[in-house]
Amino acid sequence: MAEQSMDADTPVFAIAVAAQLAGMHPQTLRQYDRIGLVVPGRTSGGSRRYSARNIEQLREVAQLSSEGVSLPAIARLLDLEDENRMLRLRVAELDAALRAERESRPGVRVFAAGSAGVVPMPSGRRIRRSTELVLWHPGSGRA
Whose CA is closest to 36, among 3, 96, 83, 78? Predict the structure, then answer.
């Protein structure tokens, strides 16, 4: 059997277990699923399977609801949290790609714009000012 990695988004909990973990009635979870508030994964047979992140969301819904926040407002908050999480992941991916690019080109410190577009310039290369323009030189405080 192939080993699957488990993370916060892996749907593993049946509705009865998820309801118990969230401190709710299973019918409440079904209602939240119907209105799209907290949507669990599904098995091939159609049974709901909740992830640890779904359980966290259910607890948050219960807390916000008890404080008088409307379900549409809660849905918007959950959407914004999901968007924020995805953007943070994307920033981390881009940061890693930039770091890898910088490590693969240790001598590149200057960028120039020319007929070929913006291109990296190796350290020590003289730039022909008549056809190219220096855009950025990190650490020197000058362009």
Answer: 78
State how far the Cα of 119 lies from the Cα of 121, in Å rounded to an integer: 6
Mean pLDDT of 117-138: 62
pTM, 2 dp: 0.63
- Residue at token pair 């209602």: 31
Q: Which CATH number, 3.40.190.10, 3.40.720.10, 1.10.1660.10, 3.40.50.11810, labels domain 15-103?
A: 1.10.1660.10
At 12, list the tokens.
């593993």
User: Helix 15-22 to helix 52-66 angle, to the nearest 10 degrees?
Assistant: 50
Helices marked H in the chain: 15-22, 26-34, 52-66, 71-104
